[in-house]
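Recap from last week: sequence in, structure out.
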Amino acid sequence: MTETILVMCTVGNIDEGRSICRGLVENKLVACASLFPLVESYFLWDGLLEETPEVKIFLKTKAALYPLVERFIKEHHSYQVPEILSFKVEAGNLEYLKWIRETV
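Predicted C-alpha cells:
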C-alpha cells in the first residue's frame, strides 16, 4: 500500500484543463498531471440529459495533499459542481511512487 492517490477531474475545455494542470504542478500539489483532450460525457443536470464533449484530467499526488488539490480545482474550475474523485493507489512501480513522494 502507498500514500499515493490518483485524482480524476473533468473540465469543459482544453485551455481550462491545461491551466488547472499547470497550476497544480507549479504549486507542487501534484507530481504529474495527464490530460486527455476529448471524452464524451452523458449525465442528467437539472432533470435534462446532457451530452457534452469534455477533457479528462488524471493527477498523481499524495493523499495528504488531496484537500489542497480539491480546493485549487474548485477555485479554478468553470463548473458549478466539478467532478473531483480520488482513488487510492494500492500498488505501482516503486521508483515512480518514490518520485511522486519526492516531488510533492
